[in-house]
């Protein structure tokens, strides 16, 4: 969650730079990279959640006799 917050803050700075009239092509590229990084991070979290669920189900099945 800390990583997501940092990415969100970075995106806000990019938006401000865009409004100021900075290099729009470069800023848009950075914005896209920011979103891709967020997606990758969220995918990693989802994968970890799924792994934890599988391990929990395995442990639960092991206990049930």
List keywords for this structure.
65 residues, mainly alpha, 2 helices, 91% helix
Q: Work out the count of structural domains.
A: 1
Question: Segments where pLDDT lies below 50 for 5+ residues?
Answer: none
* Secondary-structure element string: HH
Alpha-beta classification: mainly alpha
Please outline the major beta sheet: none
Please state roughly what percent of the residues sit in beta strands, choosing from under 5%, 5-15%, 15-25%, 25-35%, 35-45% or over 45%.
under 5%
> What's the multimeric state?
single chain
Rounded radius of gyration (Å): 19 Å
Would you report the number of β strands? 0
Please give the count of helices: 2
> What is the averaged pLDDT score?
91
Helical content (DSSP H or I, runs of 4+): over 70%
Global morphology: rod-shaped
Euclidean distance between termini CA atoms: 39 Å
């Amino acid at each position: 969650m800390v990583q997501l917050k940092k990415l969100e803050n970075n995106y806000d700075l990019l938006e401000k730079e865009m409004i100021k009239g900075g290099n729009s092509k470069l800023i848009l590229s950075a914005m896209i990279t920011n979103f891709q990084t967020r997606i990758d991070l969220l995918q990693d979290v989802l994968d970890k959640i799924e792994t934890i669920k599988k391990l929990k189900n395995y442990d639960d099945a092991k206990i049930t006799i």
